[in-house]
Amino acid sequence: MTEAYNKACEEVKAAGDWSKNIPNERKLISYGLFKQITSGDNTNARPWAIQYEAAAKHDSWLSFKGKSNEECMKLYVEEWEKQKAEFNK
Predict the structure, then answer these.
(1) What are the structural domains of the chain?
(2) What does the H/E/C string look like for the chain?
């Protein structure tokens, strides 16, 4: 699974202009999974609600608390494949 995850990460970095069409809600899923994989469980205090972007990222990461790296890598790859299929047209 690590190989598929690394490939997906490289594809995300190289994604073209089409990736701007991916809604923020979907990008947040990928962000939360990425943070869980790279940093483990979120133990940070939640930013103030007026810090909308930071709070949304925090909440997304927190939603994957307790999930294993292997499970998160699988979900990350699946989400990226869905995003490519839906928005790379």
Answers:
(1) 2-87 (1.20.80.10)
(2) CHHHHHHHHHHHHHCCHHHHHCCHHHHHHHHHHHHHHHHCCCCCCCCCCCCHHHHHHHHHHHCCCCCCHHHHHHHHHHHHHHHHHHHCC
